[in-house]
C-alpha cells in the first residue's frame, strides 16, 4: 500500500522517537558515569578532558527538554496534521540543534576527536568509544530532522 507524504512523515517521527530518543536516554547516563570515573581516577593526567562530565550532564538536560518538546508538541502536530503553523516550533528545534552541534564540537575538542591517549586505561577507551557512538547517533538525529523532516513543513 502506497503511503501519502503525510503518513511517511508521521512514520519518520515515530522512527526518530524509537531509534534516537530512546537510545539517547539509554546512552547518556552510562557515559556520564564512565566520564566521572575517568575524571576522578585520572585527574592529574595531561590529556584528561577537564569538565567533560559537566558538559555531558548539561547536555543531557538540554537534550531531554528538546526531545520532550518534540514528543509532546511538534511530533503530534505532524502526526495528526492539524494544519498549524510549524514555523515557530521548527525554528526552536533548529536553534536547539545548533546548541547541540556546539556541544558536539566541545566534546570532540576535549577528546581530541575521540582519540584516547596511548596510556589510557580500558575505561577511558570505552568512554571515548561510547561517546563517539552517541555523537554519531546525535548527528544523524539532527540531520534527519533538519534536512529530511523539517523542510516538508517550511514554505519555500
TrEMBL record:
Domain spans labelled Hemerythrin-like: 19-152
UniProt keyword annotations, A-Z: Cytoplasm, Iron, Metal-binding
Places the protein is found: Cytoplasm
Keyword Iron among record annotations: yes
InterPro entries reported in the protein's UniProt record: Hemerythrin-like, RIC_family
Entry protein name: Hemerythrin domain-containing protein
Organism: Hyphobacterium vulgare
